[in-house]
TrEMBL record:
Domain Electron transfer flavoprotein alpha/beta-subunit N-terminal, first and last residues per copy: 4-193
Entry-linked Gene3D superfamilies: HUPs, TPP-binding domain
Database matches in InterPro entries: DHS-like_NAD/FAD-binding_dom, ETF_a/b_N, ETF_a/FixB, ETF_alpha_N, ETF_asu_C, ETF_asu_C_CS, Rossmann-like_a/b/a_fold
Similarity comment text for this entry: Belongs to the ETF alpha-subunit/FixB family.
Pfam families in UniProt: ETF, ETF_alpha
Species the sequence originates in: Paenibacillus puldeungensis
Keywords of the record: Electron transport, FAD, Flavoprotein, Transport
Name of the molecule in the record: Electron transfer flavoprotein subunit alpha/FixB family protein
PANTHER family: ELECTRON TRANSFER FLAVOPROTEIN ALPHA, ELECTRON TRANSFER FLAVOPROTEIN SUBUNIT ALPHA, MITOCHONDRIAL
Length: 324
């Protein structure tokens, strides 16, 4: 019997998030011939993103565009999602989301609602007949666990930057606009306060991360890292040491109590390499460390190390990359 696979897509600044394309690819890889794939996009002013989404989905793209869905609120998004489910002819077996702030919050609510299990933060998957085995890191990346969902299906969240994004399809999907019925809410949003952070590229999805630690010495010192990140079209991250010192916003913190990033290149500048920092970046494909202390523990996990003053090394790198 054919099954229905659902991908809950997300937008950022009106654009489709890269992790949603990765979730789509995971769903396409997991499903069998004849299974249905449906994408759901919730938000406001999302016509550009929904048109973009149709390029990657051969099936239906369910769109709920409403001012109340402008920013994420758990109960409102959950209500919108269940209304979108009602528009499907059958209950989906597998639902894929990004392992983002929204995915981490919405996923378990959906799992509880449908009475199914969840596998979170997957970094790879293998399909063996009807079985799909998902791999997820444990203990801050020191071990990996392989898991599969029961035949009843379940929820899967995808760690950004680990699964290849979906390719465009030959026959684009069909947009199905849905009405949104506001739930009786116990809360009202009075005002959205958006903290300004320097990131032009989303930190968790960036292919290159230039990260600064206490060695950067000041908020001003982060400017040299921003210039290198701009030259490489990457994002700026930080250690908790740098955040605690007030050099940058906590939104940039990478590590055990911050964000987990797995970019293709991670450039650690003036970061000692404490275990709690490694928990957030040690799965990066290539690690480059710049530190003036040759004994700094970061060099133990680095693929390339530069012993030197970051204020001399980083501008030289920026100058060279600008020429490329
Ligand atoms: P430091 O350890 O002070 O290192 C600064 C480095 O800069 C040194 O190696 C020094 O040689 C180098 N340096 C100085 N000047 C220069 C220069 N001019 N050029 C080049 N190099 C220079 N930390 C995190 O990062 N993320 C977390 O999520 C996190 N969670 C934590 C959770 C808990 C429960 C605890 C207890 C700690 C946590 N920490 C976390 C803190 C962590 O233990 C370290 O204290 C922190 O990572 C240190 O930050 P740092 O490397 O920037 O600073």
């Amino acid at each position: 019997m054919s099954k229905t696979y659902v991908v809950v897509a997300e937008t950022k600044d009106g654009k489709l998030r890269q992790v949603s394309l990765e979730a789509l690819h995971a769903a396409v890889s997991a499903k069998n011939e004849g299974d249905e794939l449906v994408a759901i996009l919730l938000g406001h002013n999302i016509s550009e993103a929904s048109a973009d989404l149709t390029r990657y989905v051969e099936g239906k793209v369910l769109i709920m565009d409403h001012p109340d869905l402008n920013s994420y609120q758990a109960e409102v998004y959950f209500a919108a999602f269940t209304q979108a489910l009602d528009a499907l002819s059958t209950q989906p077996q597998f639902i894929f989301l990004g392992h983002t702030a929204i995915g981490r919050d919405l996923g378990p609510q959906i799992a509880a609602h449908l009475g199914v299990g969840q596998i979170s933060d997957i970094t790879s998957m293998d399909k063996n007949g009807d079985d799909v085995v998902f791999t997820r890191p444990l203990y801050a990346g020191k071990a990996f666990e392989k898991r599969k969902l029961s035949s009843e299906g379940g929820i899967v969240t995808i760690r950004p930057n680990n699964i290849t994004p979906a390719s465009s399809v030959s026959s684009p999907g069909i947009v199905v606009p849905l009405d949104f019925a506001q739930p009786d809410s116990l809360q009202t949003v009075l005002k959205d306060v958006v903290r300004k952070i320097s990131g032009k590229v989303d930190l968790t999805e960036a292919k290159i991360v230039v990260s600064g630690g206490r060695g950067v010495k000041s908020a001003d010192g982060f400017k040299v890292l921003e210039e290198l990140a701009d030259a490489l079209q990457g994002a700026v991250g930080a250690s908790r040491g740098a955040c605690d010192a007030g050099y940058c916003d906590y939104a940039l913190q990478i590590g055990q109590t911050g964000k987990v990033v797995t970019p293709e290149i991670y450039i650690a500048c003036g970061i000692s390499g404490a275990i709690q920092h490694l928990a957030g970046m040690s799965q990066s494909r290539v690690i480059i460390a710049i530190n003036k202390d040759p004994e700094a523990p970061i060099f133990k996990v680095a693929d390339y190390g530069i012993v030197g003053d970051l204020f001399e090394v980083v501008p030289l790198l920026t100058e060279q990359f600008k020429k490329v």
